[in-house]
Amino acid sequence: MISGFVHRKRADCRIAVGILAVAVCGSAAMADDPVIRVYPSRVTLDGAADRQRVIVQSVTADGRTRDLTSRARLVASVADRVRIVGGVLQPVADGALDLVVTVDGRRLVVPVTVRHADATSPVRFGLDVMPVLTKGGCNSGSCHGASRGQRGFRLSVFGFDPAGDHFRITREFVGRRIDLARPAESLLLTKPSEQVVHGGGQRFDADSEMYRVLLKWLEQGAPRDPRDVSRVKRLEVFPSEVVLSGTRLGEDAAAGSSHRLVVRAHYDDGTDRDVTGLTVFTSTNTASAVVSADAVVSGQRRGESFVMAMFGEHNVGLPVIVVPGGPAAAFPDLPAANAVDELIHRKLRKLRVVPSPICDDSTFVRRVYLDTIGLLPQTGEYDRFIADKRPDKRKRLVDELLKRPEFTDLWVMKWAELLQVRNVKGGFFGWLRKRFLANVPMDRMVRELLTAEGGFFRDPPAQYFRQVGKPKILAENVAQVFMGTRIQCAQCHNHPFDRWTMNDYYGFAAFFAQLGSKRNWEDTREQIVFNKGSGEVRHPIDDRVMPPKFLGGEVPRLGRRDRRAVLADWLTAAGNPWFSRNLANIAWAQFFGRGIVDQVDDVRLSNPPSNPELLDFLAARLVADGYDFRKLIRVITLSFAYQRATEPTASNLDDRRNFSHASFRRLRAEVLHDCLCQATGVPSRLGGFPLGTRAVQLPVAAMSTDFLETFGRSNRETVCSCEVDVQPNLSQALHLINGATTWGKIEGGEVLKRLMTAGDEPATVISALYVRCLSRQPTDRERTRLLAAVAAADDRNEIYQELFWALLNSKEFLFNH
């Protein structure tokens, strides 16, 4: 017997060549045999009503999991202390014992402690009844949680107001919804169990755990919870990961590929409880995995999902992967440029996905120019890079691009969108640009922003607080921009798909409640922002004053400090779990077209990162490098993951989340505009700025053109990443085909005139246009067909114009790839 809960079976080895042979044989067997685990690894049963489900899982060498619970034999070392019914432990008598689990010839031991086996705990409204109403769907938005309720009965949506719900159930219509003299005949029980007609249908059976909880509470007299009742601190779900597989190689997961789950709640008094039966389960991708109400997740098609478990106001989740059945094919030994590749390869190996090969030099040079500085490589730059034979030329190119001022212009534009820079006056845009040019660390720049005060003209970052007097909007924007999370839902009710409650929302808003503003008496055009030292945020349910509280953190000690300074210190601290991950995710999305969490400003439990270890690595690297954004981007662009081709392999054709191949990304409006100007050699007149000013350099959204608006430029009305629209549509196609932008620049430019005047051969002209627009040479087939068209034409200039127009309208020009 091996103590603990993890055991590897050692294969029998014949002693043939001594102890060394035995050791080698045993090690090989250990490497190949599956790992067996029992969850939870330790059990404490506290009280007569306590229960604990046990699940047994095997994990094969290639990462696949299998639920062995139904085959396992569970035996208590002291039989009169627990009862085991269907894999569930029930207390009988106080004391310690071992749960001995036997499966497939393995023997594992789980320590069990039983306390207060004779004590009966009362059912609590907030801890027991409210989860029943949530699991039954009674307080959902489509039922009694609707703003007006259903058929005269209203509950707070997802249970954000337990006190109000208790009143409406017990006091709103006395004697109608509950009958304390005859609890079993209460409408609270007979309707959802459909013993009487119920418009919402049957929500649970009369012999279910949910029914028993409500009945016991009614038999107790339907009391309110005492003030000192214990509260849930956190949830945990077992196992931590599930990898389901099919039964035959090449097939998707079979219907029988399933796994049980267990959810355990931990309370602030140190106790824990199995709450699986009262937990709401959902799957984020039902095409790959579905989860039943009784906590069984089943594989459907190859892919990934995330199973959410909600108990009360708490949420937790686990990743579920579905892979083809049969033995796993050998994963190729792929080289890694840095830790980025190692972490991506680890995930791809688990998914059985082989990544695409590295792209050629022409593809790389165009891709990295567009992503890093928002421009195409000039012909001379392209030629020099292609001719360079040094093995580290890609590294040298990245280092060169990161030093160019156009890199600053691109990122200043992106942050101007996030910070909603709308006014040319006051120098906010200029302040941003100076900070990026000086490579000021991101944590310092954000700290300057959040603590800014003074006049808008003399202290430009103070313009970030234009929404003075609106602490809720400021809190929402700070959370979304600097933490990547959207808390707006929690303004009215607890977030149904994330951890945020109304207490979290209003506690975070309190950091901005003491921000004041006034007019500068010397110049009434200028607004001055300052800390008033007074002002509070009140909870809309009970009107209590909400102390400032960090999101996902604690209530800080403020003293006499500005609340914003306390928030800025917490947000930019090295150990903050939000800030560095958010910045790393924003940088990653710029170069891959999607974030590790996508959208980048929608971080939530139900939208987890596709590769958490990768995001953690990038965040840690950013902190270790002193929040130097350029160093982080260098790590990203030099990875082989960034340099992969767009052409998929047989196994990664459907992959959209794990960066196994490059993706096609339509150029954003400003970059596309600037590339058109660059390729044709004809700049646009933008606003009142000098001719040659690029679209990415425009300081405010009001300075726009029909072209920029058609192609989805952000109007900076909100901080949402969705403000930038890069989805192609018919209007854009018509604008390019029929509008004056493309033809006007071709006819008004000197590109073709210079090529024709130089007397270049048709093959040279064709190659020059391809390099200018697409950063590559024409293929043999393209060159042959175009040379034939030029030879047959009466007017070569017309053919060249049409070729130029066709290249600028091609998907290859409009998209980065």
Short structural summary:
The protein is α+β, with helices and mostly antiparallel strands. It has 5 domains: 6-115, Sandwich (Immunoglobulin-like); 125-219, no CATH class; 232-328, Sandwich (Immunoglobulin-like), CATH 2.60.40.1080; 439-573, no CATH class; 669-816, no CATH class. The longest helix has 14 residues, at 19-32.
How does this model look, in words?
This protein is α+β, with helices and mostly antiparallel strands and 817 residues long. The chain folds into five domains: 6-115, Immunoglobulin-like (Sandwich); 125-219, no CATH class; 232-328, Sandwich (Immunoglobulin-like); 439-573, no CATH class; 669-816, no CATH class. The strands form nine sheets. A four-stranded antiparallel beta sheet has the order 1-2-5-6, with no helix packed on it. Strands 3-11-10-7 form a four-stranded mixed beta sheet, with no helix packed on it. Strands 13-21-20-17 form a four-stranded mixed beta sheet. The two termini are 57 Å apart.
What best-fitting shape do the alpha-carbon axes yield? globular
Number of domains: 5
Rg over CA atoms: 32 Å
Structural class: alpha+beta
**Order of strands across the biggest sheet?**
1-2-5-6
Tally of helical segments: 27
Work out the number of β strands: 28
Biggest sheet descriptor? 4 strands, antiparallel
| Cα-to-Cα separation, first versus last residue | 57 Å
Helix residue percentage: 25-40%
Unreliably modeled segments: 1-31, 247-256
- Fraction in beta strands: 15-25%
Mean pLDDT: 89
